[in-house]
Structure formats: structure tokens, C-alpha cells
Amino acid sequence: MNMLWNYQIVDTCVVFREWHVSSNTTFALSFLAVVALGALYEWLRSAQRALDCRIAAALVAQGKGKAPVENGRDVEADSEDAGLLTGVPVVKTRVGTPVPLSARISRAALYAATVFLSFFLMLVFMTYNAYLILAVVIGAGVGHFVFGSHMDVQAVLSGTADVKGMACH
């Protein structure tokens, strides 16, 4: 594998030995496959958000969508500084609503697939092949365009929106 920036087309090894480009045609097919993988990554991110919305809606419908309250105070009101200012240790508790096991499994599976694909695309990027890097970027852009057509305006304005881009995970 070439560890320097390159424009090599024929005789390129992409990620593993079996994905060896031997002609212009196989390189074009590899380029399109990487674009598809980049778009798939964006679809997975969109699917994660949609699944979380469905789970949250179901929890709210069951009356379970409230943050826990402890001793008449909202748990989120405690800050890390409270223990330093008062000398009393702050006991951290989990904030949020417990998610049912089946939903946790679904969320974990989608998350694992997203992490796997992000690292796989990182390995494609690490071929240092300018064309394959371009394919990753084009795939991410196309995927974001297709699967990112809606926005939660309130979440964006309040700063709570998922703004994580194509990071490793």
C-alpha cells in the first residue's frame, strides 16, 4: 500500500488484499462502491436519529419521558462544582429515561454498524489515493443531501442538535 498522496489507478490495493484494482474498470467500480459506502454511512446516521425519535415518542406515550427527580430537585440541576463549593460529595446519578432492552439492542446494533463503517471509510482514506478520498467525500455529501433533508430547527437553535459529521464515531 502506498503511504504517500497518490493518483494511482491500476494496481491499487483498497483496504484489504482481495480488493485489488487491476484495471480502469475495476477502479471505476471501486470508486462507485466507496461513494455508496459514504452515502450508506449518512443513511445509518439518519436511521439512528429516526430510531431514537421513534423510541422517544413511544416512551413519552407510555408516560416515561420525564427526567428523574431526586429529593424534590431535578437531577440535572446538580453541577460538578457543587461538591467543591459545599464540601459535600456530589453523587452522580443517571439522567434520562431507561430504554427497553429491545430498543437498546437496536440502538447498539445501528451504532456498531456506524462505527464499523466509519473506521472502514477511514481505512479507505488512508490509502492516500486522491480519487478514493474524493469518493468518500462525494459519498458523504450525496448521503447528507439525500438523507439530511429535514432539520429540527429548535434543536439547532438551542444547540442540542446532533452536529457530528463524518467523524470516526
UniProtKB/TrEMBL annotation:
<keyword id="KW-0813">Transport</keyword>
<keyword id="KW-1133">Transmembrane helix</keyword>
<dbReference type="Pfam" id="PF04145">
    <property type="entry name" value="Ctr"/>
</dbReference>
<keyword id="KW-0472">Membrane</keyword>
<dbReference type="InterPro" id="IPR007274">
    <property type="entry name" value="Cop_transporter"/>
</dbReference>
<keyword id="KW-0187">Copper transport</keyword>
<dbReference type="GO" id="GO:0016020">
    <property type="term" value="C:membrane"/>
</dbReference>
<dbReference type="GO" id="GO:0005375">
    <property type="term" value="F:copper ion transmembrane transporter activity"/>
</dbReference>
<keyword id="KW-0812">Transmembrane</keyword>
<protein>
    <recommendedName>
        <fullName>Copper transport protein</fullName>
    </recommendedName>
</protein>
<keyword id="KW-0406">Ion transport</keyword>
<keyword id="KW-0186">Copper</keyword>
<comment type="similarity">
    <text>Belongs to the copper transporter (Ctr) (TC 1.A.56) family. SLC31A subfamily.</text>
</comment>
<feature type="transmembrane region" description="Helical">
    <location>
        <begin position="26"/>
        <end position="44"/>
    </location>
</feature>
